[in-house]
Amino acid sequence: MEKDLTELQTLIEAHFEKRKKEEEELINLTDRIEKRRSERAEQMKIRAERERERQNRLAEEKARKEEEEAKKKAEGDARKKMILSNLTFSGYKQPQNGTKKPTEREKKRKILNDRRKELNIDHLREDKLKEKAQELWDRLRLLEAEKYDFQDKCSKQKYEITVLRNRVSDHQKIPKGGRGKRGLRK
Question: Over the chain, what is the mean pLDDT?
């Protein structure tokens, strides 16, 4: 019986020692878990701070780009205003030195300004306005007719060009040795 009692006591002691080891392991494990949680929380704080810094940088960069675009737009508007202020009713101001040749654009602009007539209708009465409207209508019909004629002429010329190109390409396709066979026999 004493043998059983000692055996039982050793079993109880072994059980308590095992339980104590398991509790120590559990405490170590919970400590590690808490340590990881605190480290992870620290990392999350660092990430959040970095993200805020990144967002701030992006916002600053966006604001800077918008400011630059606004400056460019303001400069462009100022340039346009300057160009428009240099315009007169007769077109661009003539350059100071008369030796400079006019460009094609300036030539076209001058021709268009010569064609365009001023419309002074403020002082006209109803019958004169009707006459002016009829005159403008006739002018418009004349211009439309000219436009149609030019378009028709252009399309005919394009057709002639394609016909001539086809003839040239057909002519180039004929072998050179074959020409002798078509001519007189020897």
Answer: 86
Residue 92 and residue 106 in contact, taking contact as beta carbons nearer than 8 Å: yes
**What confidence score (pLDDT) does residue 92 get?**
52
Closest CA relative to residue 70, chosen from 56, 62, 55: 62
Q: What is the pLDDT of residues 110-161, one digit of tens each?
A: 888 887 777 777 788 889 889 989 988 998 999 999 999 999 999 999 999 9
| Gap between the Cα atoms of 155 and 162, Å rounded | 11
3-state secondary structure of 176: helix
* Short-list 102, 124, 106, 122, CA closest to 114: 106
Q: What is the pLDDT of residue 186?
A: 46
Distance CA 148, CA 136 (A): 18
SS3 letters for 110-133? HHHHHHCCCCCCCCCCHHHHHHHH
